[in-house]
From TrEMBL:
Lineage of source species: Bacteria, Pseudomonadati, Pseudomonadota, Gammaproteobacteria, Oceanospirillales
CDD domains: PLPDE_III_Yggs_like
N6-(pyridoxal phosphate)lysine PTM sites in chain numbering: 35
InterPro entries on file: Ala_racemase_N, PLP-binding_barrel, PyrdxlP_homeostasis
A molecular function (GO) term: pyridoxal phosphate binding
Annotated Pfam families: Ala_racemase_N (PF01168)
Organism: Marinomonas piezotolerans
Name of this protein: Pyridoxal phosphate homeostasis protein
Key word Glycoprotein present: no
Cofactor: pyridoxal 5'-phosphate
Amino acid sequence: MSIAENIAQVKQDIRLNEKRFERDMDSVRLLAVSKTKPISDLEEAYQAGQRLFGENYVQEAVDKHLQLAAYQDIEWHFIGPIQSNKSRQIAETMAWVHTIDREKIARRLSEQRPSQLPDLNVLIQVNISDEDSKSGIRLENLMPMVELIRSLPNLRLRGLMAIPAPQVTEADQMQVYQPLKQAFETLKAKDQDIDTLSIGMSGDLSAAIASGSTMVRVGTAIFGERAYTHKD
């Protein structure tokens, strides 16, 4: 199947799950995870109507942003870990950052965001499975980070993001997501800017949509397996 056909299939799956879980139609956006994929794949996805692209590696993200500068309606999302010495490149090129979990990174992105650009949309990454190997803050530490980001110029807090540990069943996946869903709903009720819950990938799409996801991150189902190993 072509990339265009894959995108159509993924979007159909999203719409079916919206209906299944009584979500509003088109309430879940598709973020195409394009890490390690060549520019030609992104162009093919763009021609198929895809506008949201997620990148994990800073230099690759910056290079693609430059090479596809003619497509001004692409919305670039950075979804990988952030090293403090590379925060400026992210602040200068990305529209969204999904992976804020440290005060130092939040402050650097705020300071380094060019004044001529709109505020940088940011999500706080939450470690909902309490995995020592995973990035993200614990839910009990969420509110101090929320207040910090709200106090910083040039950043706009839009919501939360998580990458949970794999689960055996859909019910188990939904159970893991439940505390995050509650935290998101609490934030949303207090702040009109909070509108994004970035959860769900190919393996847990249904459970994520059932749990309130507004943005799913899908790579392999769109572009196929990774073409090469990337070093940032």
